Amino acid sequence: MLSFFENFFSELGITQSYAGGPQTASFLLFTIALTSAGLALALYFFIAPSLFWELHLTRAMSLVGSFFGIISGLSFIGVAFTAANLYLTPHRLFVQLAFVTFFIAVAFYAITIILNPMFPNLYDWVNIAFGVPLGIYIWLLFNGPGLNTENGLIIQVAGQQIIAYAAIICMFVTAYGSCDVVIIRSKEIGQEKLVEHQLASG
Description:
With about 200 residues, this protein is an all-alpha fold.
C-alpha cells in the first residue's frame, strides 16, 4: 500500500513490486492515466491561444505559454513510458522537464489572462496560487534535501503529491473559465450577426 509521505506517484508505474512480484495492472493503469492526462494537457494548450487572438500581445504570450505547455504534456507522457525501475535517468529527466515547462506555461498564461478583459481575475489568481507552490516544488526538485534521508524523502514525496493535486484543481478551474469565455464570445458573435441581419433587412 502506497503512503502519502513515502511513495511517489511514479511508483505506481514500476513494472515490479518491491516484494519482487510483477505489478502489471498498476503499471498499465498508471501508464494509461498519465498518458491521458499528458494528452489532455497538450491538447488544452494547443487550443488555448484561440481565446487570446484579438490582441497582438496576448496572442504572442499565449503562443509562448502553449509552446511550453505542450512540451510539458508530452513530457508527462514520457514519464508514463519510462518506468522508474527500468529507466530511472530518463524518467527523472522527463519529470524535471514536465514540471519546469509547466511552470513557464502557467507564468505566461497568468500574465495573458491579466491582459484579457474577458477573463475574470479569479482565473488569474488561480494560476498564481498554483504557480507559487509549483515554483517552490521545482526548487525542491533541484536543490531540496536528498531522498537518502527520512526527512528528505518525506519532503520530496509530499511536495510532489501536493503539486499533483493542485495541478488538477488549477487546470479544471482554468478549463472551466475557458469554456465560459467561449460561451460569452459565441453569444456576442450571435448578437452581432443578428444586428447585421436586422440592418441589412431594414
